[in-house]
Each structure stands twice: as structure tokens, then as C-alpha cells.
Amino acid sequence: MTTINPSDKQKGEAKLARIPIKIEPTEQFLPKPHWIRIRATQSQKVAHLKELLREHQLHTVCEEASCPNLNECFSHGTATFMIMGDKCTRRCTFCDVAHGRPDPLNQDEPKNLAKVIQAMKLSYVVITSVDRDDLLDGGAEHFANCIREIREACPTIQIEILVPDFRGRMKIALDKLSKAPPDVFNHNVETIPRLYKAIRPGSDYHWSLQLIKEFKARFPHIPTKSGLMLGLGETDEEIKAVLHDMREYDCDRLTLGQYLQPSKFHSPVHRFVTPDAFEALGQYAEQLGFTNVASGPLVRSSYHADLQAAGKTIK
After folding, report:
1. List of E strands, the chain
2. What is the per-residue pLDDT across 16-29, written as a single tens digit (0 to 9) for each?
3. CA–CA separation, 90 vs 137, rounded Å?
4. pLDDT, tens digit, 9 for 90 and up, residues 171-187
5. How far apart are the first and last CA of the chain?
6. What is the C-alpha separation between 256 and 268, in angstroms, rounded?
7. pTM above 0.70?
């Protein structure tokens, strides 16, 4: 039996070896339909942005989670920055971000992040993070420090944060964020409650909803946002039930996208949802009162977040 160093980056089989519900490695993947295929390109701009990130010891969720839109977004000079390292304390079975004992926080990260964002001349930025269950505030103060540094360097920028669930630390986390609130607060519910134990071990469906509601109660003027992945084994009726719950818990904006399996060791894709089905679910969500809905196979929680914030339709 191979001994794993807890500080190592564990991905794929190593990461998912100790989850409560075992996943049988996928032997045969569902063939991807034509609407999900992505043409991989690597422009000079993409290479330059990657070099800039490495130079300042920064990470993006685009790279760490193997996002299918990486080349498109990098080519347009946009990225979703992932703070607090590249090792997560959770072992979610849909996610390609590595698990492991996190490194100490880089106290220079907020300033480095602000420098890169200023150099990129961004007007809108999304900041996310790994889960940091090892920190007393779940990393909320580090989020707040990043927001402060970015605003100092770029006074007119809009900042969206895509936060973890701050499990067991909701009040202290929101207290810290209250000192430097974002322009948009995003926390993904990810999937239906029936699948939580298999897909999001260590997380709680109602806790995630309550986090959105608690933030909105403190900041009624700041838009709240959440997202779901489709194709993990849920039904359309279960999706609709979650959309109802999101509205009940004061979620304003919504993203719906197709789950894509990062490796044979991750949760399998049960179905590829058609563009027409995404369109119908998006229309249903709009009827429920979401102020903006991005629904489509390649939609991700931060994909074209700047356009969504401006009220434009994303598919």
C-alpha cells in the first residue's frame, strides 16, 4: 500500500480513495455530443497570462479545476483567481482541484493579486478559493484582505467572490467579509440534496443555502449568486425544486452548466443535457424571479461573469 504524504497534492485516484461513497473507475465514457466539444487553442496571450500568474505565485481555478473555457477566457484577458493555495481540505468527487494539507497562507498574495489585476487592466474580476477548513475563519479575512488590496490598486473595479461554505464558521466569516464586502457574493450549491453525500462529502445543502440568505440579510443591496451542475444523476424535477429553494433563500442570480468528468476516478456523467433543455430550465428560473440566468452546456459559475453582472444573457 502506497503511503501518501498529507502535504502532497492528491488528485484523481489518490484524492478520492477515502470518500464515504466509493466510485468505481469509469471504463467507458459517454460520447460527448457535438455541442460540448471544445476546440483547444493556445494563443500568445494565453501563454503570457500563465507566465504572469507563475511569476506572482498565483493560481486560477481555470487551470486547477481543468475548466473547458480556459483558452477562451485567457484569450480575452480574463481569469478566475483562486486564492489560499492549490490544495483543498475537501474531497468533492466532481472537482479536479487537488486535495491535501494546505500550505500556510501567503501574506503577500493580496498585494500580488492586486498587481496582476492592475497589469491586466481588468474592470471585473472573480476571486474564489480552495476550502480551508484548517483556518478558524475558513479564510474569510484573507478574502477581505484581497478585496481591499484590489480596490486600492483598481478603484473602479467590480469584484465578485465565489466562496466556500465556511462550514461551522458562518458568523465569524461573514463578520470578516462585512469589513470589505464584494460587489457580488457567489456560493455554489452545486447539486441536488439527494446527491450531496456522494458529490460534496463534508458539505451540507441547507448550510449552503443559509450562507446565501445570511449574507443577503446583511447586505440587501449586494447581488447573491449560485450555480448547479447538471448531468450527475439528478432529475429535472429535482433541479426545479432546488431552484425554488434558492429563491426562498434569497439567491438573485443563477448559473446552470453541464458537468464534465475530470478523470475516470471522478463521479461519472449520467447524461449530457441538451441545449434545448438548458434553455427550458433557464426560462423556468426566470419565471421564479432570478434577476439574471446563465444556462447552457458550457456555462460555469464565473464564465462571462462580467456580462452577467451587466444583465446580459449568457448561454
Report:
1. 59-60, 80-83, 87-88, 98-99, 124-129, 158-162, 184-186, 224-230, 253-258, 292-295
2. 888 888 889 999 99
3. 16
4. 999 999 999 999 999 99
5. 46
6. 18
7. yes
